[in-house]
Amino acid sequence: MTKREAPIYKVIFLNQGQVFEMYAKQIYQSDLWGFLEVEEFVFGERTTVVVDPSEEKLKAQFDGVVRSFVPMHSIVRIDEVERMGTAKISEARQTGNVMPFPMPMPDK
Predict the structure, then answer these.
(1) Number of domains in the chain
(2) Is 35 exposed, middle or buried (0-12, 13-18, 19+ CB in 10 A)?
């Protein structure tokens, strides 16, 4: 019987009109009602010359963050993955005829 490695989760959530796709080792329901706790963020190692600017932005934004509380209605999807991909930020686009749950948007 082989020892299974600790799982890695891909968490996709909405934040201020953007879609964040990140990887973490710990995810669980928070004691704060309506929130999910995400801990131990995992970012790719710099082993190549090519640097992804969105991953670097995420790494800088979450530098020093021990735990993040994400509202449950912002979660798009959570997957347990075998291999970690690249963390990224993309713009949220409305497609189709389904109206998303209203979220407050800050004025720019």
Answers:
(1) 1
(2) middle
